[in-house]
Amino acid sequence: MLQVRSVSRSFGEIRAVDDVSFDVKSGRMTGFVGANGSGKTTTMRVILGVLAADSGTVSWKDRPVTQSVRQRFGYMPEERGLYPKMKVAEQVIYLARLHGLDRATAHRQTHELLEQLDVAERADDPVEQLSLGNQQRVQIAAALVHDPEVLILDEPFSGLDPLAIEIVLNVLRDRASRGAPVLFSSHQLEVVERLCDDLVIISNGAVAASGSRDQLRTRFGPPRYELVVGDDAGWVRDIPGVRLVELDGARAVFDLDDGTEAAGVVSGAPGPEQAVLQSAVERGTVRSFSPVVPSLAEIFKELV
Amino acid sequence: MSLTKTTSTAEAEAASTGFWSATRLVAEREINAQVRTKGFWITFAVFIVGIFGSAIVPGLFGGGATTVATVGPEAEQIVAVGDFEIIQAADQAEAEELLRAEEVDAAVVPDQSGTSPVGVRVIGLSDTPDDVMSALSVSPAVDILEPADVSDELQFLMAFLFALVFFMFSVGFGMAIAQSVVTEKQTRIVEILVATVPVRALLTGKIIGFSLLVFAQVAVLGLMTPVALRLGGQDELLTDLGPVLGWFVPYFILGFVLLASMWAVAGSIVSRQEDLGSSTSLVMALVMLPYFGVIFGRENELVMNILSYVPFSAPVAMPVRMFGGDAQTWEPLVSMAILAGTLVVAVLVASRLYSGSLLQTGSRVKLGKAWSRAD
C-alpha cells in the first residue's frame, strides 16, 4: 500500500497542496479527480520526488519512499515528454535501463509492451514522426516497461481515441490485477467512474472525499428515486417527506426530505419512498421504481 | 505466493540503478545521439582537412623558387648571385609583359636613367620584391643576444591554432550541451528522468558524455598533427611542437570540462531553445576571452602572464608561452592546479544550480533562485 500522509506544498504564497492524506491500495485502481489547479499534479510530483514536500511523508510498504524505492515506480507526467529524435524502441529501452533493467530484459519487455499497445510497427521510427495518439502510447510504454511496483499516471487518457483508451485500460487493469497499486488522475469522469475501484477527490489542495467508489456513491448521493407509472405522476409532490426533483408526465424523480431516511437504513421503519410506491400501486400501473445512484459527476459537483 | 513476492522484491532491489550506472547510461545516450548527427562528422572532417591542409599546402606553394626576368647579360650576371630561376627577356617591354602575366615575380633590367648605383633597375608588379632586393643588397652582420626558440610568425601561428581549436570545440560542443539540456526541459522528459535517476547523475552523465566525445576528437587530431607535419616536411617544427602539444591536451581537457559545466547551467535556466541565446552569452564571453585575449595580447608579456593563470584562458595562453620558451618549468604546474581547483568549485556550483533550475519552467530562472531552490 502506498500511503500519502499530511503532505503539504506551497509555491510562494499559494498553498497548492494542504495536508493531503490518502492510500493507494495494492491491486486496486484509484482514481484521482479534482478541478484544474486543485493540486493533483503537485501531489503526484511529490509522490515521485520530482517536487519536495514542505511537510508530510510518502511511504511504500511502510517504508519511506527514497530515490532507490522510487526507481521501481512507473510515472507518466501530465506534460508528456520523450526525446523527439530518438527512435521509439530505443527510447523505451533507455528509460527501462535507467530504471535498472539489464539490456536483454529491457529489450524484451519493450517489444512486448509496444506489441500490447499496438505500436510495434513504429518501433524504429523517431518519436517526432508519430501521431500524438501514438506518442501517447509510447509514453505509456515508457511508464510501464520496467514492471513498476507502483503506477502513478497523470491524465493517462487525455489525447487518446476511444479505441486507444480501451487498449490502455486493459493494460492498466492487467497491471492492477497483478498486484500493483495504480493511481491515475483524469478529468474524464465517466472514464474514471468505469475504471476505478477507489476514488480520491481533491478540491483546492485538500482531500474532499476518499474511499471506494460504491461507498462514496451511497455516502454522497442524497436518497433519490425514480418512479414511472401508467399515467400522470404529478401526485407524488403531495406525499409527505418527499421532495419532487423532476416531473415529466408519467415519470417522477424525487428525493427524500432532509432528516428522513429510506426504509430500513436505521430504524427499519418504512420510509416515505415506501409510501410513494404504495400509493402508486393503488393508483394503477407501476412501470418502474428504482433508487437513483448518483454519477461521479454529480458527486463531484456537490463536493467541489 | 508470499515466496514469489519476496523473490521479485529482492530482484528489483538488486537491479536498482546506482549513481554511476545511471551516469554511464546518460553519457552513452548523449554520445550515441551526437555521433548520429551529420554535423558532428562534418566538423570533425573540417578539422582533419584543416590540419593536413595547413601542414602540407605551404610547402607546395612556398617551395617554388622566385622567378626573375632579366634583360641583358649584366642583369643576368647580377641576378645569378641569388637563388633565382631566370627567364631571359629581349627588352624591358617583354620583361614587363612577363611580369604582368605573373609568369615571373620580378624583372631586372639595365638602368637607362643612370640613377641606380648598381646599373640595373628592379621592377615589381604591385609591391617591392623583397627577396630579390635583399639578395641584391649589401647588409651588415647581425648578432642576436637572446634568440627566441621559434620565429615570431610561427609563434603567432601556434597561438592562433591553439586558440582556434579550443574555441571551436568549446563553442560547438558547449552549445550542443546547452541544447541537449533545453531539449529535455522543453519536451518535459526531464520530469521522467528526475523521477528515475538522481539529478546529479544527469548532469555528470552529460558532461562526461560530451567530454569523451571531444577528447576522442582532440586525441585523434593530436595524433594526426605529427603525421601531417612530417608529410609536409616540417620535421623541425614537430620537434618544437611535440612537448607543448603534450601540455595542451591536459589543459584542454580541464578547460573544456570547466566550460561544459557552465554550458549545462546556461541550458537549464531557460525552457525553450529560442531563449538559449540570452542565457549562453556569459559563457560565450568566457570562451571568447582566451581566443581574443591570446591573439591580441600575444605581444604583451604582462597580459600573457596574467592570461596564462586565469582558468578560462590558461588552456591556450600557457601552452603558447611555453612554445615561445617564456615560461618557467613550475609555471604550467601552478596554473594547472589553479585550473583544476576552479573546475572542482565550478562543477559543485553548477550541479546545485542545475538541480535548482531544471524543473522550473516558464521564464528564465534567476541564478539566485536556482541556488536557493536546490533541494
Automatic annotation (TrEMBL), chain A:
Membrane topology field: Peripheral membrane protein
Domain ABC transporter: 2-229
Pfam family, any one: DrrA1-3_C
Keyword Transport recorded: yes
Keyword annotations: Antibiotic resistance, ATP-binding, Nucleotide-binding, Transport
GO CC term, one of those recorded: plasma membrane
GO molecular function, one term: ATP binding
Coiled coil: none
Location in the cell: Cell membrane
Cited PROSITE patterns: ABC_TRANSPORTER_1, ABC_TRANSPORTER_2
GO BP, sorted A to Z: response to antibiotic
Stored Gene3D superfamilies: P-loop containing nucleotide triphosphate hydrolases
Main subcellular location of this protein, as a coarse class: membrane
PANTHER family with a match to the protein in the record: ABC TRANSPORTER ATP-BINDING PROTEIN, ABC TRANSPORTER ATP-BINDING PROTEIN NATA
Family: Belongs to the ABC transporter superfamily.
Official protein name in the record: ATP-binding cassette domain-containing protein
Lineage: Bacteria, Bacillati, Actinomycetota, Actinomycetes, Jiangellales
From TrEMBL, chain B:
Domain ABC-2 type transporter transmembrane, chain residue ranges per copy: 40-350
Organism domain of life: Bacteria
Compartments reported by the entry: Membrane
GO molecular function terms attached to this record: ABC-type transporter activity
GO cellular component, one term: membrane
Transmembrane segments: 39-61, 156-178, 207-228, 248-269, 276-296, 332-354
Membrane disposition: Multi-pass membrane protein
Entry keywords, A to Z: Membrane, Transmembrane, Transmembrane helix
A Pfam match: ABC2_membrane_3
Protein known as: ABC transporter permease
Coarse class of the protein's main subcellular location: membrane
